[in-house]
Amino acid sequence: MRSLSRRFNQFTAKLLDLPQDVVMDLPRITMIGNMQLYIENHRGVLHFSNELLRLALGKGKLEVHGQQLVIRAILSEEVFIEGVIHDIKYVP
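== Sporulation protein YqfC ==
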């Protein structure tokens, strides 16, 4: 059933020329080097420290590991992080 739903969403995105991240409820991640990270389409901050950021997603979680992490800006569905980023992990 999930496969059918996923294929329908992909078809709809192509048909209507919509970005797949919007239709499929996926995060959009923009990274500049290993120093800045901009994440759109999250569902909230689950944990934050100077070494770990854990975000809730529509489907799963996103973990950002690093050093001296700082949240520069946070909105309802967007977050901007700076610091030394070592690893980004999607957890289903």
